[in-house]
Amino acid sequence: MKNCLFVCCLFFALSVSGTENARLIKAKAYLDVRSGELISPAKLLIEHDVIKAINPKSIPDTITTINLEDKILLPGLMDMHTHLDLDYVGNFDAIITQEPATKGALRGAKNAELTLMAGFTTVRNVGALHVTDELIGASLAQAVKEDWIKGPRIIPAGHMITILGGHGDVTQGLVPSLLEPNYKMGVVSGADEALKAVRYQIKQGAKVIKMHATSGVLSLEDTVGAQQLSNEEMKVIVEEAGRHGYKVAAHAHGTEGIINAIKAGAASIEHGSMVDKEAINLMKEKGVYLVPTTGSDEFIFKDIDKMSPITRKKAEETLPLAQKNLKKAIKAGVKIALGTDSPLIPHGLNAKELSAMMKHGMTALEAIQSATINSADLVGIKDIGEIKTGFKADIIAVDSNPLEDIKVLENVQFVMKGGVVYKNKAEKNTAAH
Question: Fewer CB within 10 Å: C terminus or N terminus of the chain?
Fold first, then answer.
């Protein structure tokens, strides 16, 4: 009898607890991002941070309802290439030379909230330009996780691992006596320093490693495509990251650097401007993602008069070529994950990358998949990226069908991350069911 009473009391307690932490989202429909099917009606039972049921047959009488009846629901979007602690006005000179890491962290908190309110509930933060040993991105990730600030789920890279004098060496252009960069800041010469750089980033909280396989556009090297990290350095970086269970994102514009980064084991190629047929075939063979960051071109060219002559010349030559090669990669079926390179696309305008990729041959569904299931696969998190029972309650709402007008995702009306509502401009009323 006592055992029976105990079981009944326990069942009652669990039932009450579940009801108190449960909410019902009612919407016009939700998008199955795998099939492209709009499923109606959309009644999502949320308990704590998880989607407990979809269109359940029975609903608790006292449950709180979030009424989004004329809206379309999607899983929270994801951005695989952000720099939350940066803003861009044609160059990063003021940040590199005048801004301390403390201000960079505050800037990052501002931009994290802008990104979340735009409907992006998960991002990779792939490196900073602040002159510091500290990892601002890792601190931002922890601050979000501990609810100190509002922001997306952040997978931080720490410092970008680059060669001395290469793309990502923040002392480029500075008087040498002012600062000597080192492996703690991601600047390496040789495999031993590359190994130490990876270990330092991980020690300080990095959850993904970013390496610069080639030179870049917005830095002072004469070329944009030359390979910088050696094959040996890249191999060491990938192997050491892998021992800790982390993936490597490879910044790579030039063809040789792209191919060698793939062979070294990079999980993603960032930008990929000069990707060719051999690189495309290798990416398909090894399941490597391309993160093209193509929507940033529009914003870079707006500020082109503020660039140095070197970076302007590289931008004018490289970015149109990158657009042509992206079309080839999309047509060939390379796996694509959305990345904005924000702040090059300003923080909070991340969804503009979706329509930019459609200009190069993606369907609306493929673009959405790049920001949901593909990105979830790239970061290796199995319970995000879909509206599915048992998945995290990362849910956004928009006014109309994004398969018919992708730009509706640039005006997200409702944002829930991990079961918490951060934005709600859509709800008619909230009431008990």
Answer: N
210 is catalytic: yes
- Tell me which residue of 195, 192, 196, 238 sits closest to 213, measured CA to CA: 238
Q: Spot the catalytic one: 28, 184, 210, 335.
A: 210
Alpha-carbon torsion (86, 266, 292, 75), positive or negative: negative
Residue 192 among the catalytic residues: no
- Please name the residues in contact with 287: beta carbons below 8 A apart, sequence gap of 6 or more: 335
Q: What is the 3-state secondary structure (H, E, C) of 168-196?
A: CCCCCCCCHHHCCCCHHHCEECCHHHHHH
Catalytic residue among 85, 169, 341, 394: 341
pLDDT digits (tens, 9 = 90+) for 381-410: 999 999 999 999 999 999 999 999 999 999
The answer, yes or no, to whether residue 194 has pLDDT greater than 50, is: yes
Can you tell me the mean pLDDT for 401-421?
98
Q: Which residue has the tokens 């790049």?
A: 370
- Confidence grade of residue 66 (pLDDT, cut at 50, 70, 90): very high
Quick one: CA dihedral 117, 375, 323, 162, positive or negative?
positive
The whole-model pTM stands at 0.92
d(C-alpha 342, C-alpha 115), whole Å? 10
Rounded CA-CA distance 29/19 in Å is 24
